[in-house]
Design a protein that fits this description.
With 374 residues, the protein is α/β, with parallel strands linked by helices. The chain has 2 domains: 238 residues, Type I PLP-dependent aspartate aminotransferase-like (Major domain) (Aspartate Aminotransferase, domain 2); 123 residues, Aspartate Aminotransferase, domain 1, CATH 3.90.1150. Helices cover 39% and strands 13% of the residues. It is built from 12 helices and 12 strands. A 7-stranded mixed β-sheet has the order 1-9-8-5-4-2-3, with helices on both faces.
Amino acid sequence: MSQPPIPLFNLKKQHESLKSELNAAALDALNSMHWLLGPQTEGFEKEFAEMIGVKHCISCSSGASAIQIALAAAGIGPGDEVITTPFTFIATTSSISLTGADFVFADIDPRTYNIDPQDIERKITKKTKAILPVHLYGYPADMDAIMNLAREHDLKVIEDCAQAHLATADGVRVGGIGDAGAFSFYPSKNLGACGDAGAITTNDDELADRCRSLRHSGRAKDKAYEYDLEGSTLRMDEVQAAILRVKMRHLPDWTDARQKVASWYEEGLQGLPVVTPPTPPAGYSQSYYVYTIRAEKRDELQQYLKEKGIGSAVYYPVPLYKQPAYKDMGLRPQDFPNAEKAAKEVLSIPMFPELTEEEVQRVCETIRDFYEEK
């Protein structure tokens, strides 16, 4: 008898466990007639700010718009350069471009896959105005080194926290370390809406006010038809806020469950020709958006897992310097050897809070079978 498949993510299982609560919350928001910037949004922003440990949360339409708004609110625009990683989703760089600024790539740390502070330092010029680290896979970037560079060179730091809800660096939750943090609540994320949604977190009062204005057409504070800035319509709706408030109560437990799943993988993959995620240093914790290994014969292994009914994915097979959208920039793969190598070797295997120990064992045994057969 064939075994049931194990998907990379299982959104249905989580949704089913909360369905009645989510349906009630969404219906209440719908029937309230407060569909934008109403009590659900206010409640979500207050609760998420408290969870991250910051003064302000400004909800918006997506993780991409959160980056764009945060950069623009920090004064980043045409003629400026923002240093970021080439080993991430394109929303990181497209959001920089939408401000009119230019992005500059620094290579990654081969162990954490996050931006390498030493290469950041090499890329700083007179045009550099900000650093945009991505906490990839839920593993925090080296924020100590990044913040030191920012202070030394008077740079803004906008954290891309799209994959790192409740991860910590030096005991501080990401999104509360730099000038601002940008979160995505895309449905597959650790905290996912039922559609697109995002948020900016910050302790800077003025930056927070500018973010609120920019997401709402540039409207002046407490003024109906006066506009201090030229913004856009990038708000999060009340239904998504209501859904997120329900799910947010479960996020700490889900994060604990992900970390438990990771410990099972660490044990089950011992002795195999794969590299498991590094153990975070003291004060750091990983939220495990995905569980990413580095594997010999990666593509063959992925096909084998597929044949056995086990989901997997490569984040990211084509680094941004190779993307057709950026073909005219003259970027060279040899300038980013660590990102280039990682793109050929990384493989994300099933990770979600509801995974059982037996399912993790099956994934590990299937990987072991592959290498024994090879």
